[in-house]
Amino acid sequence: MKAFSLLLRRELTLSLRQANESAAAVFFFLLAALLFPFGVGPEASVLARIAAGVIWVMALLAAMLSLERLFQVDYDDGSLELLAVAPVPMEVIVLAKCVAHWLTTGFPLLVASPVLALLLQLPSSAIGAMVLAMLLGTPVLSFLGAIGAALILGSQRGGVLLSLLLLPLLVPVLIFGVAAVDAAAMGLDPTPRLSVLGGFLVLALAFSPWVSAVAIRQALE
Prior knowledge:
Blueprint: H1 2-17, H2 19-34, H3 36-40, H4 44-64, H5 69-77, H6 79-85, H7 90-119, H8 127-151, H9 158-185, H10 191-220
Helix pairs in contact: 1-7, 2-4, 2-7, 4-7, 4-8, 4-9, 7-8, 7-10, 8-9, 8-10, 9-10
């Protein structure tokens, strides 16, 4: 736990020094989602119907903006090799990076989502479900993104490869995240959908550090 705390502090410090990336993801999330009323019209009923899908798709794309650099910066400057030979399991290093990525990218998206939901005319009864769904779903984006970021280490055109690898994996998170919000908006119980998202989070937390660590070791060989 001490090693994890030190690594997490290191990652947060580095992220804060490059806070423009996190800010860019949040601004992209807000601005891209706010373009939809101009495209589909200002009718409240139309916006309310598409609000959950728009917010989730934009959150997914915004989170992916910084995933390519999750390991690439340390790989380029040699820090990743030093971390690999440190007396700390690579899985702990990956976990710290994933948590730092969520705190600097996923959490701001979570905070911004209720404001965006109100602007897109989402019913107030569904905002609580939106926050819970984002709380469970956005960490999955970071953990699954770590697998993709580890697999593309050292490759050219990594951003394209990352999108091709991750988008099919993230579709179930998108489906159940939107379904939970839609259920709450229709007065139904969103708990089953939220439980599925919780299951995705547990699976991602269990497998992502180990799979990512294996991919990183192979990239460093």
